Amino acid sequence: MVSWWKYGVIVLLLIAAALVPQVLPTFWISIATEVLIYGLLAMSVNFLGGYGGLVSLGHAGLFGISAYTVGYLVTRMGVNHYVAFLAGVLLTLAVGAIFGGVAIRATGIYFLMITYAEGMVVWGLAYRWAKVTGAENGIRGITRPELFTKGWQYYYVVLVIFVLTIYLMWRVLNSSFGLTLRGIRECEPRMAALGYNVQVHKFLGYMWSAFFAGIAGGLYAYYNRFVSPSTVQLSVSSESVLMMVLGGVGTFFGPLLGSLIIIVGRNMISLYTARWPIIMGTIFVLTVLLAPKGIIGTLSAWWEQRKKVSAGVVEIVEASARKEVGAEGEVRVGTESQS
């Protein structure tokens, strides 16, 4: 019953997402596109951090590698758009193999700091390798395929790719590999004792996460049509982690909800004050204090607790009913015996 209810909600959300260009103005279509792209980036961080227990501060680098590759190939070399997108994802995987091979040797705060350093390496290259990246000026004039030049058309492209990508993510997380990854998160020594190659699973988890981040980066290049060092700076990584925490670490759609709240909130609040980061920071602190499991995590915990309480009440009522029936039966038997 619950599963069908969840599927029904997902279908309704898909219908609502498909209707966005039909009911909202151009500005909000652009915002919705950005929410999907950054939501995918946050979900890639959650894939590794929420399900593998390895929180990364370097995913902006992976995101940016794909975006820069698309921008460079399209504007400087005139490569086909689809080939450029594929090349961006493949190069992200190649760099991810190097970064992941180094980072998975550490855990906890050390893993966090190594990924932070790797992200800064990418930022440094973006800022200094002017011949390729354009340095501060970045890469401008990234065109879209002719069929998707308008904002609403590109929104549908992003929506379709987003849905297909998160479906793949869901399948991976619910496979034996995904279950093993969660087991490593819960107790790494126990999984090693059971014969699982922990390092290989961590590495593959990092690679899957890099793959999803690469897709998000390629989509961003065509969305923004401009890539610069700000695309790969630390704030992008920290925001993606914030989206994950806000929505719920280890929840599938939590990072997407976090992306919606942060991006919409940032655009709305910035209309009235330049100090929107303070307000967003306050929201984050309140979330951590009042809902440490994130919004979806807290709601899920509340729902499970509610079901347990309901089940307990039903058991008590049934037990009372059985006792009453038993008592009535004893009284009836006693009466018949006397008569």
Describe this structure in words.
- There is one protein chain.
- With 339 residues, the protein is mainly alpha-helical.
- It has a domain at 17-233.
- Helices cover 80% and strands 1% of the residues.
- The protein has a two-stranded antiparallel sheet with strand order 1-2.
Blueprint of the fold:
Elements: H1 2-23, H2 26-52, H3 59-76, H4 81-103, H5 108-128, H6 130-133, E1 139-140, H7 151-173, H8 176-186, H9 188-193, H10 198-224, E2 226-227, H11 234-247, H12 254-269, H13 276-290, H14 294-338
Antiparallel strand pairs: 1-2
Helix pairs in contact: 2-7, 2-10, 2-11, 2-12, 3-4, 3-5, 3-10, 4-10, 7-10, 8-10, 11-12, 11-14, 12-13
Average of pLDDT = 90
In spatial order, strands of the major sheet run 1-2
Strand-pairing-aware structural class: mainly alpha
Q: What proportion of the residues is helical, as a percent range? A: over 70%
Order of helices and strands: HHHHHHEHHHHEHHHH
Low-confidence stretches: none
Number of DSSP helices? 14
What is the number of beta strands?
Answer: 2
Radius of gyration: 25 Å
The biggest sheet amounts to: 2 strands, antiparallel
Backbone shape? globular
Percent of residues in beta strands:
under 5%
| End-to-end separation | 51 Å
